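Chains adopt folds. We examine one example:
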Amino acid sequence: MNSYDDFINTFSGEEIKQNYPMSAHTTFKVGGNCDVAVFPRSAMSLQKIIDYLKGVHSYCVIGNGSNVLVSDNGFRGVCIFTEHLNKITLKGNLLVAECGAKVSDALKLSTENNLSGLEFTVGIPGTMGGLVAMNGGCFNKNISDLVCYVVAEDGVYNNKTCNFNYRQSRFLEGEIILSVGLKLKVSEEDVIEQKIHRFTEARSKSQPKGRSVGSVFLNQGYFAGKIIDKAGLKGARIGGAYVSEKHANFIICDGKSATDVYNLIKMIKDTVLKTQGIALIEEVRYIGEF
C-alpha cells in the first residue's frame, strides 16, 4: 500500500497512471516523473479530483505544457492532465471551450463558422484554460479582450472579476479553470483568412523553431528579447539549452536536462541585472523542485 492508494481507489473509473513521465506533455520535452497522473474525463470529475486532493496531496494541472518547466526530479504529487476535457461548442457568436481544448481547435472552429477574434492565436500551442489563466496573447492582443466568462472550481467569473492584467489573472493564484466563454464577431471568410495569414507570417519571421515555451520572460516596460540581446547573450548555451539567435527571449532545448534550461534562465537574469540593472521576471512556470 502506498500513500496514493485511497486516491487511486476513489477514482478508479478515471485514467490513472503511476510514476508517469511528464516530459511527453511539455513543449520543452524534459523533466522527470510525477508520482501519479490522472486524466479526468469530464469537468465534474476534475472538480471532484481537486476537491479530494486539497489538503491531502500536492497536485498540479497541465494542459499542453507549453509554458512550464518540469524539474528533472519530477513532481512529488498528483499531476492532472486536461487533455480529455477538449469540448468546444458555439452558441451564436459565443464560443464555449473546456479547459483542455486546444487553442488551435478553437481557432479552427471559429474560422469555419466565420467568427473573428481568435486569429492572433494562430501558432499558439497551448490550451484554452492555460491561455486564459495567463491572459496569453501576442501582436498587442490578449485573450482577455474576448473573455465573456470563466467557469472555475470556486465559481463563475465575468471579465472584470477575472482580474486580468498583463499575463495575469486570478487563476494564476491556484484556482483551476473548468471552461471559458469567448465573445467573437461575425466576419467575412476572406477577411479572417487574411488576418490569419498576416499573423502567421509575422510569427514565422520573429519566432524560432525548436523545443521552447515561447517567450521566457515578461515584457514589462521593455522588450525582454532586446534587453537580453543587449547583454550579448544571443547564442549563449548551457548544456542542452541555448538562447535563440533569432529571438533572444526564446530558449531552445535540444538536450534532455531541465536543469540546463533552469541554469540558463538564472544566468540570463543574473547577467541582465548585473549589466543593466533590470530584474527580468519569468513568464515560464516551474513544476517540482529546482
